[in-house]
Write a structure and sequence with these properties.
This protein has helices spanning 12-20, 60-77, 93-102, 108-118, 136-146, 171-189; strands spanning 2-6, 37-41, 44-48, 83-89, 123-128, 160-162. The protein is α/β, with parallel strands linked by helices. The chain has a single domain, classed as Rossmann fold (3-Layer(aba) Sandwich). α5 (136-146) links the parallel β5 (123-128) and β6 (160-162).
Length: 190
């Protein structure tokens, strides 16, 4: 099982569509079900988790409920999850993370990344919307730092990958990385 997680509007459904040819878009209106959606891909199960964090028109308590449900799903399925793809918006992620930090809160992307690490779930961070990012190298290095890792992009080439779901950039590399990580994950878990 591969899970895709990310804030809403980072381009997660566009990415899943690009990778699998399957349309997972949910209605954005409050009250619309935001359950995980499972689809088949190359003999594997892909789970599109509902987008977390701020969504316009969605009350805070609903956002919190979505987050709790995602956490529970991941905990309940930790032994089945071979890989997590955390999708971030390369253009706005750092700004949002810094805004949360200034308020003394743990940014939700950072929290999810660390949560996945704690559960030993191999994770790829897909830095989407790279078409809008001016200095990719600096952006990814700073994201690595914010995620609490030591080192630079050079050290984490198998974890952080810039892509553009909309324009199809680097998606072959992402597919390759997904296959490699799953293979590793299977070898490690036996
Ligand atoms: P989701 O809420 O994470 O599922 O996000 P969507 O897939 O609905 O995408 C949100 C918006 O971002 C849409 O307007 C997409 O067209 C746009 N988008 C998605 N991927 C990219 C990308 O790689 N580059 C740019 N510039 N826009 C993108």
């Amino acid at each position: 099982m591969i899970i895709f997680v990310g804030r809403s509007n980072v381009g997660k459904s566009t990415l899943i569509f690009r990778l699998t040819g399957k349309y997972v878009k949910r209605g954005k209106r409050p009250g619309v079900t935001r359950k995980p959606i499972e689809i088949g891909w190359r003999g594997k199960t892909i789970v599109d988790m509902p987008g977390f964090g701020f969504m316009s028109g969605v009350p805070k308590h609903v956002q919190e409920k979505i987050k709790t449900e995602i956490v529970h799903f991941i905990e309940d399925n930790a032994d089945k999850i071979e890989l997590a793809v955390l999708v971030v918006d390369g253009k706005s992620a750092l700004e949002i993370i810094e805004r949360w930090e200034k308020r003394g809160e743990i940014p939700i992307d950072v929290e999810f990344f660390q949560f996945l690490q704690e559960l030993n779930i191999p994770t790829i961070v897909a830095v989407n919307k790279m078409d809008k990012v001016k200095n990719l190298n600096a952006t990814i290095n700073r994201l690595i730092e914010k995620f609490g890792l030591n080192g630079t992009w050079e050290d984490y080439k198998d974890t952080f990958i810039p892509i553009s779901a909309k324009f199809g950039t680097n998606l072959d590399q992402l597919r390759k990385l997904i296959e490699e990580k799953i293979k590793e994950s299977r070898e490690q878990r036996g």
